[in-house]
Structures are given as structure tokens and as C-alpha cells.
Write a structure and sequence with these properties.
single chain; transmembrane helix; MB_O-acyltransferase; MBOAT family protein; transmembrane; MBOAT_fam
């Protein structure tokens, strides 16, 4: 835990308070939910956890986006409110550790997991440095038991961890950063280049973000393995997918499964009819897009993915309309 806090404080020590406050709230909420005598008490503590964590995320990541959108909307009617934006620094990794700590209280509320009584273990789980700033998003059911049990040095795991770190560094430094030189040059002023050059830069960018993110995941997974912790795989050759549905089962898998288990299913999943299913799918992808970034282009991106996923789901459930294989 100390190593994780030093790691995070190296960027900006002031934002350690957010992780600590969030950890205290969810450690307490988990115990209160589990020991509550009534359903009302259980829901109350779950709501406290949701409001606190999503509140922090909304303020630090989305406040200015919502305010700017509001100002632009009311500006159509001639109303120009005073500047409402704030000079807010986005805390590194807040999206990741917020989702990680929320999964803990939600799993306890669903009776899928029992809370820990070891506050040191829980604080370590929330702030564990290999995956603190960019995932993978680990569930408490996988990581907390590993933190609480005694670990022994495993030469095989250590060697595997070293190899995976080296692979991750190669993906990030050699491939992704090299592609970034070309991509950044083209996108810095697209008016200077023809359409084929811009198209090539777009293709290179797709591989840049893959090797950048998957490379970091390899480094995180390998680093954890050096210390005797096993994370889940986060990428599984997503660009070889035969459909967008399959793509989201292979790209940033820890996020995809989090959105499925805690958002899509919580909205009703596919249990309340076909129209509600499509609605839930679209809302999940819209919010997934917003999770990636606080701007309209991310929301539009999520909407496009939601639309295509809905079309694929429709075609799969109506095989007589067209020959379709997922």
C-alpha cells in the first residue's frame, strides 16, 4: 500500500486524498451492506457508495464538459451566463480506480462477495500500483484474496512476468511510439496532406492505440506477476474479430465485462423485451464512450458502436433475413 501511495503521489500528492476518502467510504459501505438488517439499509449504503464515487468522477472529469455544453445550449436562446467553468486538474487513473471500488460494493450488495475486515488489504486493492492508472480493472473477487493470502516466490511466474514486461515495452516504445511520430505529424495539420496520406495515418493510429494500451496492460500484468499476483488478460487479438460484438469481447476486456456486469445487466440486460434490450445496449455504449473522455466526440463514438452492436444483435436473432455469423 505504501509503495502504491508513493507511486501515485509522485504525480501529485494532493490527489491521494481522493483515493483515501473513496477507500474509507467503500470499506465502510461494504461492511454496512453485508451486516445490514433490512433491505432499506443495504440500499442506503449502496447509494452512499455510488453517489460518493460517481460524484468525485463527475466533478473532476465531467464538470467542465457539462457546464460548457449547458452554456452552448442556452446561448442559442441569447442567454450568456458568466463563466461557470473551474480550473480542475483531472486526477490520473480516477476512472479506473472508481470502477474498481464500485464493483466491490455492488458485488457485496448482490451477495456475490463477502467484505474484507482487513482495511490494509482493501486500501491496497484500490491503490495497487501496477494497474492503478490504466487498468486492467480487477474485481475484488480476484485480487483481494491474492492480497490477503501469504505469497511465495515463484521462479516460473517471475520469468513470465519479465517476458511480459519486455513484450509490453516493445509494443509501447518500439511500435506505438514510432507510429505516433507519423500520426502526430499528419494530424497536426491535415490540410497539408492528401486523402490517402490521412487514411494511412488513421490506420496507423488504430494500431498505435492498440499497441500503446495493450503494451501498458502487459507491463502491468507482468509487474504484478513478479510479486505473485495474477491479473486477468485485457486484450485478445481484437483486430482479428469477425464482428463488433466479438471485438468488444477482446478489446479492453476488463472494461467491457465491467460495463456488461454492472451497467448493462443492472439496467435490465435482455430480460425485459427486445426494445428494452436495445435501449440498454445503446445506453451502455453511450456511457462507455463518455467514460473514455469528457467530450461529445466520445459520446458520438459510443453511439455509433451501440448502433452497430444493436444491428448485429438484430441480425443474429433474425437469421432468415440475412446469412450472419457472429
Amino acid at each position: 500500500m505504501v509503495a502504491s501511495y508513493i507511486f501515485y503521489a509522485w504525480w501529485d500528492w494532493r490527489f491521494l486524498s481522493l483515493i483515501i476518502i473513496s477507500s474509507i467510504i467503500d470499506y465502510t459501505a461494504g461492511l454496512k451492506i453485508y451486516n445490514a438488517e433490512t433491505e432499506r439499509q443495504r440500499k442506503l449504503w449502496l447509494i452512499i457508495s455510488l453517489v460518493a464515487n460517481l460524484g468525485f468522477l463527475s466533478i473532476f472529469k465531467y464538470y467542465n464538459f457539462f457546464v460548457d455544453s449547458f452554456v452552448q445550449a442556452v446561448g442559442i436562446f441569447g442567454w450568456q451566463p458568466n463563466d461557470l467553468t473551474l480550473d480542475i486538474i483531472l486526477p490520473v487513473g480516477i476512472s479506473f480506480y472508481t470502477f474498481q471500488t464500485l464493483s466491490y460494493t455492488i458485488d457485496i450488495y448482490r451477495r456475490d462477495f463477502k467484505p474484507t475486515n482487513n482495511i490494509l488489504s482493501f486500501f491496497t486493492y484500490i491503490a495497487f500500483f501496477p494497474q492503478l492508472v490504466a487498468g486492467p480493472i480487477e474485481r475484488a473477487s480476484n485480487l483481494l484474496p491474492q492480497i490477503e493470502k501469504k505469497r511465495f516466490f515463484k521462479k516460473e511466474w517471475f520469468n513470465e512476468g519479465i517476458v511480459q514486461i519486455l513484450i509490453g515495452l516493445f509494443r509501447k516504445i518500439v511500435i506505438a511510439d514510432t507510429l505516433a511520430i507519423y500520426v502526430d505529424t499528419i494530424y497536426s495539420d491535415t490540410s497539408l496532406y492528401n486523402s490517402s496520406t490521412i487514411l494511412l495515418a488513421t490506420i496507423f493510429y488504430a494500431f498505435q492505440i492498440y499497441f500503446d494500451f495493450s503494451g501498458y496492460s502487459d507491463i502491468a500484468i507482468g509487474t504484478a506477476k513478479l510479486m505473485g499476483f495474477k491479473f486477468h488478460q485485457n486484450f485478445n487479438l481484437p483486430y482479428f474479430s469477425k464482428s463488433l460484438t466479438e471485438f468488444w469481447r477482446k478489446w479492453h476486456m476488463s472494461l467491457s465485462y465491467w460495463l456488461r456486469d454492472y451497467l448493462y445487466i443492472s439496467l435490465g440486460g435482455n430480460r425485459k423485451g427486445i426494445k428494452i434490450t436495445y435501449r440498454n445496449l445503446m445506453l451502455t455504449m453511450l456511457l462507455g464512450g463518455l467514460w473514455h473522455g469528457s467530450s461529445w466526440n466520445f459520446i458520438i463514438w459510443g453511439g455509433i458502436h451501440g448502433l452497430v452492436l444493436g444491428i448485429e444483435k438484430f441480425l443474429k436473432s433474425n437469421p432468415n433475413l440475412v446469412s450472419y455469423k457472429n
